[in-house]
Amino acid sequence: MLDFLPQTRGVRESDWRVEPVPHDLHRRWVEITGPTDRKMVINALNSGADGFMADFEDANSPTWRNMVLGHINLRDAIDRTISYESADGRYYEVGAEPATLLVRPRGWHLPERHLAVRAEPITGALFDFGLYVFHCAHRLLGAGTGPYFYLPKLESHLEARLWNDVFCFAQEALGIPRGTIKATVLIETLPAAFEMDEILFELREHSAGLNAGRWDYIFSSIKCFPERREMVLPDRSDVTMTVPFMRAYTELLAATCHRRGAHAMGGMAAFIPSRRDDEANAKALEGVRADKEREVSQGYDGTWVAHPDLVPVAREVFEQGLQGAPNQLQRLRDDVQVTATELLDLPSTPGAITEAGLRTNVNVGFQYISFWLTGRGAAAINSLMEDAATAEISRSQIWQWLRHQAKLDDGRTVAPDLVRRVLDEETEAIRASVGDEIWRRGRPAETREVFERVALSEELIEFLTIPAYAYLD
Hints:
By secondary structure, the protein is of the alpha/beta class. It has helices spanning about 10-15, 40-45, 65-80, 125-140, 155-175, 190-195, 195-200, 215-225, 245-260, 280-300, 310-320, 340-345, 355-375, 390-405, 415-435, 435-440, 445-455, 465-470; strands at about 30-35, 50-55, 85, 90-95, 100-105, 110-115, 120-125, 150, 180-185, 205-210, 265-270, 300-305, 380, 385.
């Protein structure tokens, strides 16, 4: 059973603080995230957000072309030489006050098979970090900023210690001062929620805070208890940030960060505005506003959005909530006392398992894998920006419901035959909506093969991107 580590009690109970962050990380009200293709980099930097997290991980399909061109695009953005001309003749370039650039490398679990050391593929994390810091660290310092990172998928403070060793080695090799590199860690796995103090401690001279990576956190919560029937979650739409186990996690994150002088960054607003449905947009934006107001009330210093149109509403909420202050680090949240039982209280999540929820998981999981196999790591599906994390929820929920023969709210059992029938129906609907030519380009046979492998296998596969990676160039 997961619990706070007895051997690191001294770290949790002693007084220490992380080193201060550079000037351009003091205010982080709104950060926009997205992949590293050329037009998106320009639009994100021009979005009005305080920061742009250029993503080589969950919003990226790691084809060799995507990886190399992504690094070229970031280098050109730092040099202010980046530009893009679309097919309709529109011209894009970076404006006078771009967002602060942060980079998310891949997690430790993903390989980069195009670069081998002693005949073994290098980990994608080191490839992404090393290429960026080697080419861009001095450029960034010359531009008055620095090499700033987001670190994904950590489960233990020992992984944070390894990253700290990597940072120290790189700084020494490049001849830049120790502590120049700053990193925000995504607390997006359930085990990491029990080691937030320890993670900050290991990175204390390189820390820029923690982030509530909500989607992967839900996926991790499913993955941690594959054989526990009482941990089965309802429809994805019911697992909101206000259900007991999610609220406990977000409260603890804000309190832990501020006790240590570190920024607490909120989760993703994934809504993609429609150009045709003003009523739906207004309703969704009110939901985004309420979510960001909750984060401000919990003590968060900033938040994430997936689309430039969400920047104004998120900025307004944080500017008003913080009364113009760059952050609320002084708000210590001494009232927060979260227990292990509260962090693990998945059984109290209200909601039901429905056919609509099953269909959404099948539809989103299949479509995302198709996009990923054809080189797109982030895709707008049903007005939401879906990435690898949300696809992981979709396919792992299907696996969990199958494993435990969960009942739909109409009494039917979630069984393989039902899932395959829904898959047949949903894929036919997708084919009809996109047309035969686009359908064929989406690699449907291989997409179904991957989907069935990660959703219907006997054992829960750790990450869908690991078997899917074999299909990429």
